[in-house]
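As described in the Methods, two query proteins were run sequentially through the folding procedure within a single session, without resetting any intermediate state between them. The first query and its resulting C-alpha cells are shown here.
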Amino acid sequence: MHYFNVDFSIYINYFAGLFALINPIGMIPIFLGLTGFQSVKKRSIINTIANISAAIILIVTLFIGSIILKFFGISIESFRIAGGLLIVSIAISMINGTLMNSILYKKNKNQSVYYKENISIIPLAMPLIAGPGAISSTIIWSTHNNHLNNKIYCSIIILLFSFFCWVLFQMAPWFIKILGATGINILTKIMGLILMSLGIEFIIESIKILFIKIL
C-alpha cells in the first residue's frame, strides 16, 4: 500500500518548474515562425516529433543524471548552485526580452537554415523545449529524489508536460489571436520572475547544505 502514499506536491512542483523553465506559451510565436511555411499536416508532424524527442531527452537525463555527476566527481550541491545560476540567467533574459532574440533562427540569402526535416529536433526539441535549463533542473530533481518510484513518477510528469506542450503548439494560431504579442510578452516576463525565484531557491538550499556539512 506504500505505493499509494505519494507526496504529489513534489511532482506538481516539478511540473510547475518545467512550465516556468520552458515557457511553452512564450514559445508559441517562435514555433509559428519556424513552421509558418509548412502545411497544417506537416506542422502537426513537426510538433509531434519535437515533443516526443524532448520527452526522450529529459527522461534519459532523469535516469542517468546522477551517474553523470558521479562520473565527473561533481557534488549535487555544486550542480544545484550551477543549475540555479543558469536558471537565474535564463530568467533575466526572459524578463529583459532578450531570450527570444537569442534563439530565433537565421536565414541566408536563398533559404532557411532549418529545413522541415530537422527543425523538429533542432531547435524545437533542443534547445527550445529540452534546453540547458530544463536538463539541469531534471538532473537536480533526479538526484534530490533518487528512488526508482520517484523517477517513474517524474517520467510520467515529463510525458504529461510534453503532451501539454503538444496541445499548446497545435493551438498556436488560436493563442496568437487571443493573447496577442503583448499578452505573450507579459506572460513571458511573469514566467521569468517565477523562474528566477526557483533558481534562487536552488542556490539557497545548496548553500545551506554546504554550511551544515562544513560545521
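Immediately afterward, the second query was submitted; its sequence and C-alpha cells are:
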Amino acid sequence: MKSFIDVSPDNDFPIENLPYGIFSTCDNPSHHIGVAIGNLILDLSVISHLFNGPVLKAHQQVFQQATLNDFMSLGIPAWREARSTLQTILSDDDPTLRDDPSLRARAFVPQSAAKMHLPAEIGDYTDFYSSIDHATNVGTMFRGKENALMPNWKYMPVGYHGRASSVVVSGTPIRRPNGQTRPKDDEPPVFGPCRLMDFELEMAFLVGPGNKMGDPISVRDAHEHIFGMVLMNDWSARDIQKWEYVPLGPFLAKNLGTTISPWVVTMEALAPFVVDNYVQDPQPFPYLQHEDKYTYDIKLEVGIRPDGSDHLGIVSRSNFRHMYWTMKQQLAHHTITGCNIRTGDLLASGTISGPSEESFGSMLELSWRGSKTVDIGNGASRKFLQDGDEVVITGYCQGKGHRVGFGSCVGKLLPAKSLQ
C-alpha cells in the first residue's frame, strides 16, 4: 500500500494508519474532522461528498461535525467503509485527489499549521487498574509482597469513575493541585501544594455505539462498541491520594487533569499488531471470557523535559501487551449491571507497567515510593515531578517498513495556585 503523499518510514501516520482527530487553523477557527497522513491533515469536511458507499452516502453530514461522536455512533460498517474510501483516494494510483490540485489545496492542511482539539465530546470517563505488574508493584509498596494484589483483582477488571470535565487534549498545561496531605502518620494532616506529583502512562479507548440501560454488552460483541485508542497521561497527586483514598478511592488526587493524545487510532489500523491475550489464572467468570485476541503490541515511551531544557530524558519504555485485562473485558464488566455506555465515553487502561524496572509506568514505581532517584539526563534526576517539567508520552506499532503511531501526549506541570 502506497500513498501519493510522501511518508517517511519513521512517521506515525502512513496510509496504513489514518487516525481521526479534530483540528482548526488560524484562517478557519471552526473545528473540523481530519485524518492524519504523513505531515498533513486531510480535512474530511471538504471531501465529505466522496464518502458515497452504501453505508455512508446517507450519512455524509457526520464529516461536517465538530466532534467524532456522530461518526463513531454509526458502528463498524461505517468505520470500515470510511477507511476503505480514505485508503483508495489517498493511494498513489487513484486520481481523485492526486490529479485535482484545486481540491488538494482546499483539502490538505499542514499539521504544523493546525491546532488540535479533543476528538470527541466525552460524557463519562472510567479508569481501570488492569496492569498486573503495576498493581503488584503498588501493592508491594504499601502492603508487602504477600498481600500485593487485593483478593478481587484477578476476578474482575477493577476501576473507578473519573472526571470527564478535566480530560484535556495534548499540549494543555496541568497545574499542581492544592489539597490535604498527611506527611507524618503520627501527626494531623496539613493543607498545601501536592509534593508528590506523578504521571501515569496509560492508554484509553473511545466508545462508538452505546447500549440501552439495562442491556449489558456481551464480551463477544464488545469490539463492535470500541472505535479506537489514544495515549493518556492520568496525572496523579500521590500524597493527596494516600490521605483521601480510604474508603472510597481516588478523588481530588485524580480530578486535576487527564491528558489524551489528539489522534484516535482505529482498531482496524491496530489489527495487524494483535498478540496473545495475557494468560489469566484463575479463569474469569463466563461473562468475561473470550478466546479471540484483543491485546496489541504497542511500544510506549515516557520522557521528562525539565523547564528551559531541550533534552528529553526517557524514563520508561513499556508496552500495551502487558495488560492483564483486555478492553473487551473492561467494557463487558462495566456494563454487566446494565450500565449504559454512550458514544464518546472514554475508558482507560490504568497505569501500564511491564515486568522490568525500565518498563514501570509511573514515578511512584520508578523511584520506588521516593526511595531512589531516576536519572533524566544532563546531570538531572527526579523522584517525582517538579514544576516546569514537561511529560511526553509516545507510542507506536512497528510494521514492515512503516509504523502505525499515535503522535504524542504532552503536558507541562505548572506551579500550584497561591491561595493567599
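The chain is about 15% helix and 30% strand. We note this only descriptively and draw no conclusion about the first query from it.
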